[in-house]
Structures
1.
Amino acid sequence: MQYLNEEEGKIASRFLFLSMAIVVLEKDIKLIESGSFKIKEPYLELLRRMIHQARTERRDLRKNMDQRKMDVVFIQKNDTFSTYLFLAHGYEEERRYFNPAVRKKVEQILYELMFETIDTTNKPTPDYA
């Protein structure tokens, strides 16, 4: 049975997938730092700004969830599905996500963060301009 209304489901799902996106970005930073990139700083700067933006949004979502007495808890993962427990109003709702769909959703959030970050970044003017 579904205990979360549509808005609560969207908030909790966004929180979940945004948290996953942050983990991906943190791992990517470590790979770039230890990798053989010739010039690392522009990529690291972009990823750090994306993380900052994601954490800010996630903090706001967490406040909203706390006000609504909501939480999301990881249960299990296998080759095909990941299962999470959504808690709200004293009820529990188990949701299973198809892993390739999770990957696609996280990828979509990464694109959103990237484009938002690029749009809000003060672009430096080249020295030769």
Note: The chain has three helices and three strands.
2.
Amino acid sequence: MAPQLTVVQHAVLADRLTVLRDRNTAFPDFRHALFECAAILAVEATRELPVADTEIETPLETTHGARLSEQVVVVPVLRAGLGMVDGFLRLLPDARVGHLGMARDETAHTPIDYYSRLPAGLGEARVFLLDPMLATGGSAVNALQHLKGAGAQRLELVCLVSSPEGIQAVAENHPDVKIWTAAVDRGLDENAYIRPGLGDAGDRVFGTL
């Protein structure tokens, strides 16, 4: 199954991603670079949101403009996805925010659900699932299935760094979901970490190393 994949090409995004990859980047700088990356990805992922024509009064005359016509919901996968929320809300301040908590089983490399809080009306909204790392794809596949079960119909997945294995897992289980990413890395190691990757995004953004 061929994935619906867009690798965002942007000079500033590439620069900030390099900051995120650098092991010497302190967590305040990591957090700020993650915010900037998320903001750039938000601009790209929302490029084709539907708009409605509207008539307004400028200080000089009547004219026509466009306003977003679809509700937007952003859902970070806890913890690391929280670091991407502000980048989206800077662009979309009216977006509602849900949360999905998933921990990683370090032995089986599978997700463990521990929290869910989602806004009503997902079926009428464009829903962006946020997770910096798309590794095995287990958390993303599970989260997307959870969101569909809650009524979401127009879903898109936004990641910073992705592995070929994770991309394929999403494509096989959710072929209708478009993936936005800043980079596709080489692959997974024996511990299911993305290589070269950027380490544990949650630990690095919150300073819990």
Note: The first strand starts at residue 4 and ends at 7.
3.
Amino acid sequence: MLGTSFWHHPLVETAGYFSVVVLCLVVSMVLFEIVTKYKNWDEIKKGNIAVALATGGKILGICNIFRYSIERHSSLLEMVGWGFFGFVLLIFAYLLFEFLTPRFNVDEEIAKDNRSVGFISFTISLGLSFVIGASIL
């Protein structure tokens, strides 16, 4: 029978956090795919740099939020809960970016490979992930 020390071994804990965060990242990316008007992976396959930048920023942002959540919570359930709360805030930030730019449609510009908009989207996702992460209790 496995003792409790096995489950608290740093290698086992790291593998556990890694597995859970990868699963959460996949779920998050599916939800982002629903929120955006373009198909992330189809556009990336076509070479759309703006979509790659925006998607990369989302991935980095989500991972950064979960990094803070792992650092601050000893319970897996709390870590996942705070991580997803941070993800919801990232979605809100993306929608706010769209709302605050009435002169153009962010999703349409990214779909058209407007790299400037893709880069700003990347920066917003990554930058706000630090703010969200720092505020996780």
Note: Helices lie at 4-7, 10-35, 40-45, 49-72, 76-99, 106-111, 115-135.
4.
Amino acid sequence: MSSTPTTSRPIRPPSDEELVLKVIPMPADSNANGDIFGGWVMAQVDLAGSVIPARYANGRMATVAVKEFIFKQPVRIGDILSFYSKLTHLGRTSMTVKVEVFAERFRAQGEYVKVTEASLTYVAIDDQGKPREVPRRTL
């Protein structure tokens, strides 16, 4: 009697994070190996990471630090990328978010693969680009 190989359960996106962006990378976003440029993914993570802090900043803000950026799997042309974000720290002038990126492969939609995770810090700035206090309010 033969045994069937064990397969891991499909990954599900996090339930405690907010879906802030969905995007499909195209051939123009790929490198010579046919994978998507890491820099393109980083730019998308920065956009996705800014969504929640923008609600708190109530004005201009700037990315000031990328504390961690991990590429776990390659991103491929045609993947449906879902970017989930969560505020992890709210300071006087700064906000830190965790961003996780999951790919639904073109031919395996509904099955998620975690491809990237990052931690980014944004600072609220005034018209002269100087740090300013993040307004305190309940969202």
Note: The chain is about 15% helix and 35% strand.
